[in-house]
């Protein structure tokens, strides 16, 4: 697996669970040692020049770990600034800059235990930027964050990339990757299956149409029948409580919607929608072909 990320680029790593995204991140930030091959960050080998690499990187992961709940956000940042070797004369200015960047200015005196999930994640980003790293690794930063907080988090990441920091992002949210990333690598089975801009990856689903059907109590036999329809390439089923969402990918020149509905005759249906492919559809096509 070989890829290069340019200075100031916001680069996304997408892939199913177990594909190797977090392992790749941990190799690049020196938490794991490569068993073969080489990796370089800012020109420094991650195995031979570990200290030089660590001086130049920041690491932010999703979840609640990494902060002290009983301390205020300000005290957390002061503590980590000492650990990261930020000069005392620079700490006050740097912390103020970061609190403003992540939208926590005015809330820094509050204990972190009272912060929402989204506020915690923004504080994680501020912590990872204290020592002004050249490269910031964001490993699923919006996991478990509500939609409003996720939007604020995406805005923070976009602002960060605009300052010239190189960002390597892993995420399971296709809309997030589509909105933020300059380029994306799709990983499956430890290999890069596709690499390009979001628009370039969407072209991988060109020549397709997508039919979405909300249904209740669809038997597996009906799903198998859908997969056997002429022109159908893939059929996916997502459970949403009692509701099932059927997504049928077909050749663009074949109108399968009528056939799909006939196969589901007698089953309680909800919304039916036919649309153009999205990045998520392209991702499914790429991973399914791996």
Automatic annotation (TrEMBL):
It is found in: Cell membrane. SUPFAM superfamilies: P-loop containing nucleoside triphosphate hydrolases (SSF52540). Keywords: Antibiotic resistance, ATP-binding, Nucleotide-binding, Transport. Its main location: membrane. It is a peripheral membrane protein. One of its GO terms (molecular function) is ATP binding. Residues 1-214 form the ABC transporter domain. Belongs to the ABC transporter superfamily. This is ABC transporter ATP-binding protein.
